[in-house]
Automatic annotation (TrEMBL):
Assigned keywords, A-Z: Cytoplasm, Transferase
Cellular component per GO, a single term: cytoplasm
KW DNA-binding (keyword) present: no
Known pathway: Carbohydrate biosynthesis; 3-deoxy-D-manno-octulosonate biosynthesis; 3-deoxy-D-manno-octulosonate from D-ribulose 5-phosphate: step 2/3; Bacterial outer membrane biogenesis; lipopolysaccharide biosynthesis
Protein name: 3-deoxy-8-phosphooctulonate synthase
InterPro entries, alphabetized: Aldolase_TIM, DAHP1/KDSA, KDO8P_synthase
Cross-referenced NCBIfam families: KDO8P_synth, PRK05198.1
Domain DAHP synthetase I/KDSA, residue spans: 15-267
Catalytic activity: D-arabinose 5-phosphate + phosphoenolpyruvate + H2O = 3-deoxy-alpha-D-manno-2-octulosonate-8-phosphate + phosphate
Gene3D superfamilies xrefs: Aldolase class I
BP GO annotations: lipopolysaccharide biosynthetic process
Alphabetized PANTHER family for the sequence: PHOSPHO-2-DEHYDRO-3-DEOXYHEPTONATE ALDOLASE (PTHR21057)
Amino acid sequence: MTLNDVPKLKYIHSDNFFLLCGPCAIEGEDMALRIAERVVKITDKLQIPYIFKGSFKKANRSRIDSFTGIGDEKALKILKKVSETLDIPTVTDIHEISDAEMAAQYVDVLQIPAFLVRQTDLVVAAAKTGKVVNLKKGQFMSPESMRHAVQKVKDAGNTKAWITDRGTMFGYQDMIVDFRGIPTMRAFAPTILDVTHSLQQPNQMSGVTGGRPDMIETIARAGVVNHVDGLFIETHFDPANAKSDGANMLHLDYLEKLLNNLVTIRKTINTL
């Protein structure tokens, strides 16, 4: 597949990486538009193809009292408004078979969470919507095994699949990114590096996932050097008070400098 398969995606001929970026979860309309407007301004300046990311609900939570969303339809309508207001594509993750058809009415890319990427019925349901399907590599899976997830999408009659690496479990409370997997997975489908989730520190005693946002640029630089097709970065204007994944998100104020640096590296790599 090519980036032409994503409606409203700009700068696809800029020879830049593309970017999936936004908050972990949709907390409300004002916050979603505030973040999206800021990222659009930056990506327009740098000519980065941009897809706004926001989860309409969060099903994988450590504790029963963790934030899960503001209501499915309400959040999906906000995603659609972001798309229509700013003329950009959007992506959200789905967790159940019934989510696929519902979410496909509002967004351009359906994302399969890492813990669910082996769920054949879910992957097939996403594929059958005809949308681009972003398959997040399970923290427990090898890069080579993602060939089969991509093949499920194709066998369902959809050639529009991406792979996203979000790190591999290293013990109980840490992740590592094995950059040898990037070229392996790129042989199967366009490959994205989920920078912020790769820096999660799950399974904390508190029941709230930790993170290492100070390492975001380190991981992102390595991804660009190793020719990832896209980057996935969660960002928020107030990570400390974000309702989900605040511990590993990038503060919105730091995004422009980071992307400037990464675009410079990309241009250098493209000349080699």
